[in-house]
Task: structure prediction
Amino acid sequence: MNLHEYQAKELLARYGIPVPPGKVAYTADEAKAIASEYGDTVVIKAQVHTGGRGKAGGVKLAKTPEEAREKASQILGLNIKGFITKKVLVGKAVDIAKEYYAGLILDRVTQRVVLMLSKEGGIDIEEVAATRPEAIIKYPVNPATGLRAFEARELLKQAGMEGNLGKLAAMLVQLYQAYVGIDASTAEINPLVITAQGEVVAADAKIVLDDNALYRHPDLSRLREAEAEHPLEVEASNYGFAYVKLEGSVGIIGNGAGLVMYTLDLVNRSGGKPANFLDIGGGAKADIVYNAIKVVCKDPDVKGIFINIFGGITRADEVAKGVIQAMEDGILTKPVAMRVAGTAEEEAKKLLEGKLVYMYPNSIDAAKAIVDMVNGGAK
Amino acid sequence: MSILVDKNTQVLVQGITGREGAFHAEAMIKAGTQVVAGVTPGRGGQTTLGVPVYDTVKEAAAKHPLGASIIFVPAPGAADAALEAAHAGIPLVVLITEGIPTMDMVKAVAEIKALGNVRLIGGNCPGLITPGECKLGIMPASVFKRGKVGLISRSGTVTYETAKALSDAGLGISTCIGIGGDPIIGSTFKDLLPMFNNDLETAAVVVCGEIGGSDEEDAAAYVKTHMKKPVVGFIGGRSAPKGKKMGHAGAIISGNVGTPESKLAAFAEAGVPVADTIDEIVELVRAKLG
Result:
């Protein structure tokens, strides 16, 4: 789960990391009021769940409260990569002497949390990693000890990051404590600013939380914003299955993430475009299949559905019952190509006999058939 | 022969009185697995499915020569259960549980690796099976026939389909291992390939990978330098868009890491043919075995 910059800074501050004073405004007048309260130059930043805000015109400086009102009204409502800006962070501008980068990410190769440091802050770190990897120091932290101050000091020296070494090291240790404490999967300070006065400040921050650990952070899971996700993804997550909205027109329902991914690939190979990823999970009963069909049929992009089931713990006849119920209730409104194999395959086929479902013996043929149907319908 | 488990493996089930644990323990017993004990804290002294239940793994390990433990403990306690099994000296720990907090796995995997003598498989995995001898997982045993192909996979259902296709084709499975779909797992392809390399019964190995991470690239590097047996590859999620998590927490292309292009290139360089479909896996294995 992605957090907004202001939420990330609030969390980092809880762990003792200095952040510039700032408040959230939902209207231009609120932005003006915050600027007058600070009586100083402010930065107004769009709070949206995407990067590249600066380039899109979502970050502006304002010297007076009136200017703050003006700039905020320009940013509010701004469409940044498909995300509409509904709120801005109005923060005291920082007097920048140096900009650095500090980040913690999960590294699958070392199976540890890796601290990344670079003296080239304020820019896209992925770009630096791709073009000049030598400009980034990487250090896998021992999970048994956590990051210690002496390690942080050594790494800061190695990265060539100058400033108050004690304060900088403390910030890195606190960043690691925050990462573990809130169960983050990414925590970045970019830029990490050394001010003209020699202070160390997190001028911008990005935090992504580990969805698997949200259950132990009820305060953080409340920060989930329905509008940040596709409405069908929200509905699907309420039903308890994994659903990802994609760009195409073939609705996909299957059991098991691997099989669903494979089904997307088959549709793609046949010249079609999947409209979604939907995994009903292991051991799904008829009602789950029914709800899955409901979600997929609500998607106006869907022109046909491919249901691909390999029965293991999941019984194919339960899937068939869900499909039939959805037909009888008038929920299943699109043509269906279906392939079932494995546990209770014969029972499922018997149940579906005479129903308006196209059955195929293997998933390759079913993929071709549904793509032909969908593409044919579009001609 | 086979790898990791056989008919003599004595198995402990952690979480044996839970809904999932009870259901799958029974299915494992039916498939011929020697389930000899269970653990559920607070249920010590009871008997279920004809085996004694203990409060702790330590107590169970004192009474039984345990060769493996399989864990069905819910996510909040799953990593702790794996550590409990590892510290009790059980050499093979299979973690089935899905949705375990990532930091719990980072800590548990590091600690278990430091112990040095414990192999952890999973989490978020279907487990492993040596058909006809020992099922240590949640897969439908009926689709697995004994044979000469080793199978390692990051997925569940794709594994079952592949196993069924190989079994129906008369090639069969020596041992099949589902390593799990999470970003941090106990064993990766390259940890397991050497075992198949040394197993006399295994004539060829199928590696079913998917997008995300670099386990397939590591596997290809091992195959290129060490593997004496033919290997056939498969990569799921090749049409998935960047930055979207495809069901498995680990199946995500982040930046330039985890792309199908990188995995295909690595396999090509190692001389590993990659199947586009599950049917093609069978054809490629057949071609390799002549």
